């Protein structure tokens, strides 16, 4: 299976007031309907199973032994709360399994049926129709009219890709099979006119991050990971390079599979086999162990540079586990709300926990347009810490969580269903989290990467000069 490298925040927060039933049932067993996420959860004495629900479909999503997740569940007045990291999901008890789930299964490969499940999910959950000035009815009808009895899976993929682009969804994605993806790519290339273009060096996110870190570090203290680099620059300045906000869990991966399929693909296959609670717990445990070592190594530095300019995201819990090492007391850092029916849930506060021995000396956070998703949670939250200043350029503006779903034919897709704001209720979707010192990085990914790689010394001097100016204010 082709694994997308696009990194998104995986977990949302949702708090919603529910009117309690007159008759209380304090057992978690039963049928539960999520508030705002299009899910039904079925729990019995030994197992649980999630179903993705739309107006026209009921599809099995994830299941497992109830003992794996029971400790994360709390029931009150027939409202079930499930905690995952700092996030909460709310469910209300329903008396019967949805009729859709009991009906005869439709043809899972039917092109029109798959399109309608995709479209219905967006209609019910996409959070940015107004912000992005989207006429949903028009887009939906025009896209649906492209489908006929002769339409293929490749046609379906291209239609959905076109819709996501027109929706301007920063976390919108569709992942077909390898075969469909390759056929679609070949079709696209054959339709493009051949143009002579200058071949320029292209860098991967991890590649350019590694090049920069190697140049910056005078004393490299990195151990037992390739996802982060840390150590000291000249004049006892600490430097931490963070390449991603996930991939930190210890999953005992098979080395032969890594050689065959690559680390990220192998990791994601193992990661997806875990329940949601295990995913969060293992990711936090992995990054926490690394941060313990990093902060010990850098505790005597005069200040620290944290470089996330090439970090495309991952999980919010990882970002906050990193950030709390610079936080002396628990504090509110942001608000969040989710799309629910034709409105949104109430704003829910998000908190940053403190560290036992926090690093409270100055910290300089380097960001760019390539700092996205969970990395932006780090940047957004840093606005509440007085010892942190941001240098570079505004982040990507893809701050919403990604609601992850599956089509009847098995394709994975995701969409933005939540809105983050700072403590003053300002939303940074599309515009990105601003910096305290602007370095005017190019918005284009490869142009930015090449600019940095072509003159690493200038890149470093620009940052050190920015720090000196910020310190003199």
From TrEMBL:
Every copy of the Tail specific protease domain together lies at 250-440
One annotated GO molecular function is: serine-type peptidase activity
Q: Name one GO biological process term.
A: proteolysis
Entry superkingdom: Bacteria
* Pfam families xrefs: Peptidase_S41, Tricorn_C1
Q: Which SMART domains match?
A: TSPc (SM00245)
Query: PANTHER family annotated for this entry?
Result: INTERPHOTORECEPTOR RETINOID-BINDING PROTEIN, RETINOL-BINDING PROTEIN 3
Q: What is this protein called?
A: Peptidase S41-like protein
Per the UniProt record, the source organism is: Aquimarina brevivitae
């Amino acid at each position: 299976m082709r694994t997308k490298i696009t990194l998104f925040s995986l977990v949302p927060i949702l708090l919603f007031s529910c009117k309690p039933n007159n008759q209380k049932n304090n057992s978690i067993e039963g049928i539960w309907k999520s508030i705002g996420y299009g899910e039904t959860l079925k729990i019995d004495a030994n197992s649980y199973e999630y179903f993705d629900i739309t107006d026209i479909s009921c599809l099995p999503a994830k299941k497992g032994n109830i003992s794996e997740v029971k400790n994360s569940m709390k029931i009150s007045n027939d409202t079930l709360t499930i905690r995952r990291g700092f996030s909460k999901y709310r469910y209300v008890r329903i008396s019967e399994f949805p009729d859709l789930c009991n009906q005869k299964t439709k043809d899972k490969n039917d092109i029109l049926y798959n399109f309608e499940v995709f479209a219905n999910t967006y209609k019910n959950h996409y959070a940015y129709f107004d912000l992005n000035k989207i006429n949903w009815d028009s887009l939906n009808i025009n896209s649906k009219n492209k489908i006929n009895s002769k339409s293929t899976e490749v046609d379906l993929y291209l239609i959905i890709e076109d819709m996501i682009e027109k929706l301007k969804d920063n976390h919108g994605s569709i992942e077909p099979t390898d075969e469909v993806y390759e056929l679609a790519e070949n079709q696209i290339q054959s339709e493009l006119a051949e143009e002579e273009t200058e071949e320029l060096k292209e860098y991967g996110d991890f590649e350019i991050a590694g090049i920069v870190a190697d140049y910056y570090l005078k004393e490299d203290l990195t151990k037992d990971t390739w996802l982060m680099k840390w150590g000291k620059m000249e004049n006892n300045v600490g430097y931490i390079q963070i390449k991603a906000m996930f991939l930190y869990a210890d999953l005992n991966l098979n080395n032969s599979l890594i050689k065959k399929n690559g680390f990220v693909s192998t990791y994601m296959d193992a990661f997806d086999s875990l329940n949601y609670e295990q995913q969060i717990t293992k990711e936090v445990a992995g990054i926490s162990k690394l941060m313990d070592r990093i902060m010990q190594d850098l505790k005597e530095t005069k200040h620290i540079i944290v470089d996330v300019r090439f970090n495309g995201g991952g999980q919010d819990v990882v970002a906050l586990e990193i950030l709390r090492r610079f936080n002396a007391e628990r504090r509110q850092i942001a608000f969040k709300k989710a799309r629910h029916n034709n409105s949104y849930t109430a704003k829910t506060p998000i908190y940053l926990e403190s560290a036992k021995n926090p690093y409270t000396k100055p910290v300089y956070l380097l960001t760019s347009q390539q700092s996205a998703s969970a990395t932006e949670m780090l940047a957004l939250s840093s606005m509440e810490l007085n010892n942190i200043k941001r240098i570079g350029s505004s982040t990507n503006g893809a701050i919403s969580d990604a609601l992850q779903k599956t089509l009847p034919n098995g394709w994975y897709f995701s969409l933005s269903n939540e809105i983050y704001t700072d403590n003053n209720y300002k939303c940074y979707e599309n515009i990105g989290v601003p910096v305290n010192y602007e370095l005017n990085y190019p918005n284009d990914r490869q142009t930015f990467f090449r600019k940095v790689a072509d003159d690493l010394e200038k890149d470093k001097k620009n940052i050190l000069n920015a720090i000196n100016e910020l310190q003199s204010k």
